[in-house]
Amino acid sequence: MENKLTRNIYFIPYALWILVFVIAPITLVLYYSFFDIEGNLSFINYKTFFTPTYLMMTLSSFWYAFLITAVSLLVAYPTAYFITRTKHKHLWLLLIIAPSWINLLLKAYAFIGIFGAYGTANAILEVLGIGSRQLLFTDFSFVFVSVYIFIPFMILPIFNSLNELNPSLLDAARDLGASKWTTLRRVIFPLTIQGVKSGCQVVFIPALSLFMLTRLIAGNKVITLGTAIEQQFLVTQDWGMGSTIAVFLIIFMVLIMVATGNRKKRGAKNER
Length: 272
Description:
It is found in: Cell membrane. The chain has 272 residues and is mainly α.
């Protein structure tokens, strides 16, 4: 009885946090989504969201989020695999994660200097004889900077999965005559798929709602759901439409979390 009472007491701060910072904001967003720009109760915002303009913007957001996630995964998996086989793997992991501690705005402005007309990237292109190129305010610069920012969050869960992998399984695959590629494809990757799914989740969801990089790095040439929400709240002052876009963004995020969630417990329950 005492232990149950103690658990209930410890649960109170958690419940208050969820209520104030999760449930209440979502409820407010849902509430405002039913009001038009003049403050009248209406479903016009939901009707507007399903127009071609907003549907194309949603598809564009998913495309860029998918692209950022796919590139991050292609770079992160071999990087994490290499780190787990080094002597000082935790030191290397720390060096990769350390840049994520720097303020996002500072990193964005740093890349503005690197990709600018007189920046480091164009200076290298001049030395190589390629010539100066317009790198800033392009899809390439937006995806590149986004991948740079999100890649530590992709590497970390994959590294943890690879680090927990039983070495005897790799020895068994080698003894059975499996090549390195076969071992990676048939043993290592399937056993670390949960780390991959976790990495994709923590990259895809925030990439879907990017808005600051679209302004600073892409020059507003890339429009995402996050950019649309910012414009509706700060530019057009249409809180209802901004809230409606946010509602659909929350729904998309929940669906992604469900799709990439851990089904291990469900499988274990079925086996019983």
